[in-house]
Specification:
Helices cover 22% and strands 20% of the residues. The chain is an alpha+beta fold. It has a domain of 94 residues: Tumour Suppressor Smad4, CATH 2.60.200. Keywords: Membrane, Transmembrane, Transmembrane helix. This is FHA domain-containing protein.
């Protein structure tokens, strides 16, 4: 639904302004309804659309917002024919037109279910005799399954019976075959050059990287030995100087 404002005074006199959403009224360039007047504040007021209803709210303007010549301080509901005034600018409020061509919704018809009446006559299905083929099939389906021997189960699974196996194969007490020959590897075809077969490359030794900690310990050890050698040389030189003095 679209509300409209018809300008009564000011630069928009006689023109209509559509209000479909929230709108800012004032002298600021971002205003939806820009009023170039010195008595209008930069952000003077705002129109608010809530559930197809139109409200106006004053944004602490200098010269105030009026509804039907009464200054408002809070959000006010507008109705058709109200006069809204922003300083010296007046607008008439026009409510959205009601669409009379819309057809009313058809009333919902609830169908009532017919009551269930218990039959007093005996069931016809009980008097109908089933054919002999159906009885025979049902009796066959209800027959108890026949237990099969392990040999029959092996034959059903595709495994040969003991009588069908090779008589030359001897079985142990556990049923494992004995004296079964191991197949020999396939012979090498004639004319095959065995010297062309490359031997596997020898593994390349990989040097173990020296740890930084071990390197530091070795350096400290060498420095200690050198320092002790230097001290020993100094002591020997002092003793020799005292002797030959």
């Amino acid at each position: 639904m679209t509300w409209k404002l018809e300008a009564i005074t000011g630069e928009f006199t006689g023109k209509e302004v559509s209000v479909e959403r929230d709108m800012l009224i004032g002298r600021h360039q971002d205003a939806d309804l820009l009023l170039q007047s010195a008595d209008v504040s930069r952000r003077h007021a705002a129109f608010l659309v809530k559930e197809d209803a139109l409200y106006v709210q004053d944004l602490k303007s200098s010269n105030g917002t009026f509804v039907n010549d009464a200054r408002i301080e809070h959000e006010t509901l507008l109705k058709d024919g109200d006069i809204v005034q922003f300083a010296s600018h007046k607008f008439s409020v026009l409510a959205p037109a009601v669409d009379v061509t819309a057809e009313p919704a058809a009333p919902m018809v609830v169908e009532q279910e017919a009551p269930v009446v218990a039959s007093t006559t005996p069931a016809i299905e009980d008097s109908i005799q089933q054919p002999s083929e159906a009885i025979a099939a049902s009796e066959t389906a209800q027959a108890a399954p026949v237990d099969k021997t392990p040999a029959q189960q092996m034959n059903d699974q595709g495994m040969p019976d003991l009588k069908q196996r090779d008589a030359s194969v001897q079985l142990s007490r556990e049923g494992m075959p004995q004296n079964v020959g191991i197949p020999k590897p396939a012979p090498i075809p004639e004319g095959t050059d065995l010297s062309s077969v490359k031997p596997e490359p020898a593994p390349i030794p990989v040097e173990k990287p020296v740890s930084i900690v071990e390197q530091k310990v070795e350096e400290q050890k060498n420095a200690t030995v050198g320092l002790m050698s230097l001290i020993a040389l100094i002591i020997i030189a002092i003793i020799a100087w005292l002797i030959f003095k």
